[in-house]
Amino acid sequence: MRTLKNILNTIFIFGAIIGMYLYYKGNDAGTIVIMVAMGFKFVEVALRLFKKDKDKDLQF
Fold this sequence. Notes:
The protein is built from three helices and no strands. By secondary structure, the protein is mostly helical. The chain crosses the membrane at residues 7-24, 30-50.
């Protein structure tokens, strides 16, 4: 499960960076790329919240 969350976070980070680059270059596709990246982040957060053993995952 941890590996899947790390992969989803990596996709989010790269998507956000690429989306910001495209957005600031004046390309409207940047907004779409950022929204898709946010979708991956929402999935990762949902996996973290709905995990059965919440206490282990929420410790910092």
